[in-house]
Design brief:
This protein is α+β, with helices and mostly antiparallel strands. Among the domains are: 66 residues, no CATH class; 86 residues; 45 residues, no CATH class. Helix 6 runs antiparallel to helix 7 and helix 6 runs antiparallel to helix 16. It is globular, with a radius of gyration of 26 Å. The structure holds flavin-adenine dinucleotide (FAD). The site of flavin-adenine dinucleotide has 17 residues, from strand 2 and helix 18.
Length: 492
């Protein structure tokens, strides 16, 4: 066996210094790997050939991707981007993609200094003044709320203030709740790692964005990436299908007899789920281990006594720890739920990539999420006053400059989501989010969802809970604690 480190990502500024004007591109890796399937040469020799003649490597990439449709070779080229000064609203479109990695400045940990992205669609001076006025009020209230909450929480948690970590924790709680009044126009930054194939897909989507900010971002990234990897980004333009298919369908929806009533608000509601999720997981395992047809395996478990099935899962989970990843068989059971979530909750929810997440637009008609601490600090009335001003500005912009309207809504505004997760991902989600270190809004969603899923799949989901409660839940089943380490208290 020969194993070689063929490449890794290095800071672009260092690369430029090292290259001294030489031709630096990740395309040679894609070109060499693309030739593996047909060439008798060892991969390291293919790589050397690609590096010797970069133009030839580029032509080869274009032929293989374009003519043969062997698109996956573009995944071997990976880029890192610093995206600075983008709005919270644009971040939602940026982080929409599953096959990419993001790390974002959290509004939970950073005190915002009034950073704001003004949408370039706002050309009318009166609308600009409106935007400036409402976002100014939101930011001023943010600072006031933060100071008030910080004082309140310091009083309530005086015991935590003896060390710097405790002080940071209390300050984080104040920021976490004060941020609900910040507009979606608030600026943020994200580090994004993405391969050329996903990047091309992003370009196609972002060029269709209703927001100039996102379209401009696509143009900037395209300009940055094309000199480095021209042979890997071949289809950045949206097709007629991308552009028009939903518009055509939505047009026909208008003729359907749908009564528009009050939107259904609330916590998670399971609207679809695998029939017999517990059996589905057991049957999948048995079918592949014993070479049975899945229908036969399902029939076998359908007829098995519940106590026997419980025994199988008890045995399976006996060695589980709070950090254990569930195996693929758990993907055979899934649930689909609907919920109404705040923008703040959505910002966290969307980061769970191994799921299908569809969302409606922000809608002031769905109400707002008031952090209980703001009410406790006596700020409820002022909070609602700011929300009313935000709604009024939204309505005006919606009529006169629709692309700018969402920017003045806040982290407290809501949208509805339709989300499907399999039980493997649900375990991961619950461990992180139904946990005492999770932010309260998404924690409430995760907690309610876990309870609903446990009712549907009482055996396979018997340990579906946050990591902070894992030992307790384990003990309820086994009468003794789990083996191994306890979760580390996170400062996040
Ligand atoms: C308390 C807390 C604080 C946080 N603070 C911040 C913060 O300040 N800033 C910030 O940006 N985010 C923050 N996050 C979000 C966090 O970093 C994750 O993005 C989010 O929790 C989604 O979880 P995940 O990435 O593990 O997996 P998911 O996207 O849910 O995917 C499930 C699993 O699939 C695998 N997987 C998915 N994609 C990949 C991939 N590309 N490569 C390898 N494996 C993959 C991993 O095993 C992963 O655990 C925070 C989360 C928590 C719980």
């Amino acid at each position: 066996m020969r194993v070689k480190l063929a490449g890794f990502n290095v800071d672009a500024e260092r690369l430029r210094r090292l290259a001294g004007g030489g031709d630096l591109t990740p395309e040679t890796l894609s070109a060499a790997y693309a030739r593996i399937s047909r060439s008798p040469l060892a991969i390291d020799r293919l790589r050397r050939q690609s590096c010797r003649d970069v133009e030839k490597a580029r032509r080869s990439n274009q032929r293989i991707i374009f003519a043969m449709g062997h698109h996956s070779v573009a995944e071997h080229a990976v880029f890192n981007f610093d995206l600075i000064g983008v709005s919270r609203l644009a971040l939602e479109e940026i982080e929409h993609f599953r096959l990419a990695s993001y790390t974002e400045k959290s509004q939970r940990y950073v005190t915002l200094e009034g950073e704001l992205v003004r949408p370039s669609e706002l050309r009318d001076p009166a609308l600009r003044a409106l935007f400036q006025d409402v976002t100014g009020r939101q930011f001023r209230f943010y600072f006031k709320a933060f100071a008030r909450l910080h004082r309140l929480l310091r009083r309530q948690h005086a015991g935590l203030l003896s060390n710097a970590a405790g002080q940071r924790l209390v300050e984080g709680w104040a920021k976490e709740d004060a941020r609900y009044v910040l507009p979606l126009a608030a600026g943020g930054q994200v580090g994004m790692t993405v391969n050329a194939r996903t990047l091309e897909h992003m370009f196609r989507r972002w060029r269709l964005s209703p927001r100039a900010e996102v379209r401009r971002l696509a143009a900037r990234l395209h300009a940055l990436v094309m000199p480095v990897a021209p042979s890997l980004i071949l289809f950045p333009e949206p097709s007629a299908f991308d552009r028009e298919s939903f518009a055509a369908m939505d047009g026909l929806f208008a003729a359907l007899p749908v009564r528009v009533g009050r939107p259904a608000v609330a916590g998670p509601r399971i609207v679809a789920a695998s029939e017999g999720g517990d059996d589905a997981i057991l049957a999948a395992r048995l079918a592949v281990r014993r070479g049975l047809g899945l229908e036969r395996a399902r029939a076998l478990f359908a007829g098995l006594a519940p106590a026997k099935k419980r025994e199988l899962f008890r045995e399976f989970f006996a060695r589980v720890q709070f950090f254990s990843a569930m195996p693929r068989e758990f993907e055979m059971a899934d649930v689909t739920f609907q919920a109404t979530v705040s923008a703040s909750c959505f910002a966290q929810l969307k980061r769970h990539r191994m799921a299908t997440l569809l969302s409606g637009g922000y809608d002031p008609g769905l109400g707002v999420t008031l952090p209980p601490s703001l009410a406790e600090a006596g700020l409820e009335v002022e909070f609602h006053r700011i929300m009313s001003a935000s709604d009024a500005a939204y309505r005006r912009l919606r009529a006169d400059c629709p692309a700018a309207a969402d920017y003045v809504l806040t982290n407290a505004h809501r949208r509805s989501v339709l989300m499907r997760m399999n039980l493997r991902e649900l375990y991961h989600f619950a461990r992180l989010r139904d946990d005492e270190h999770a932010q309260w809004d998404i924690r409430a969603l995760a907690h309610d969802l876990a309870a609903l899923v446990r009712r549907r799949m009482p055996l396979a989901a018997m340990l579906l809970c946050g990591k902070s409660h894992f030992a307790e839940e384990y003990e309820k089943i086994y009468g003794t604690g789990p083996e191994g380490s306890a979760p580390i208290a996170s400062s996040d």
